Amino acid sequence: MEISYWQSRWRKDKTGWHMNHVFEPLKKYWPRLNLDSNSTVLVPLCGKSLDVNWLADCGHRVIGVDVSDRALQRIMHRGDASFKKSTQGSFIRYQSPRIELWCGDMLTLKKSWLPVIDAIYDKAALIALPPETRKTYVNHLASLIEPHTQIFLNTFEYNQHEMTGPPFAVHPNEINRLFRQKFTIECLEQHSLFDELSNFQRRGLSSYLVEKIYRLIPL
Description:
By secondary structure, the chain is an alpha/beta fold. It has one domain (36-218): Rossmann fold, CATH 3.40.50.150. The chain has seven helices and nine strands.
């Protein structure tokens, strides 16, 4: 999707994907990564997710990236920490002791601007992208990380012919194509969301909807 599409959704407050609570599988499975509390976590397409604050409360240094300044402002207004504003390339950067927020195009972020990334938390970033963009996104992630960097990945599976994205369906064969050369792929959980997300049924979904949680471990 074009950046202007997402910026328009935020301006119009059409953000139905936003969760008003911390993602439960994050709380359940994040300890599986066995990270030190002071590790650095990159959160692509973070929006105004409460997960950013939860990860910071765990002691991590969190770097969130999104194209919407409005979304990032929501994160900053939640806590008492003050943020210092600066620029880097085409990005606006907001920094506090635990949270760093970058406003701009994720695909133009450079490794030289970042600290060592110990983990990536991809909550619905990959599935927000159409098929023709996903490989570019994954390749760009690979350019930002280290040999030890793990990825916590959330995906949806459904019959793409029944509903247009976003969110898009990303099936195991594509996960394998995108990641198997550099990662061991561990599925931590899968469960049906078909009955919970009735709005998808109104958009045409009629057969199934499965959410999966993956841990990607470097080879």
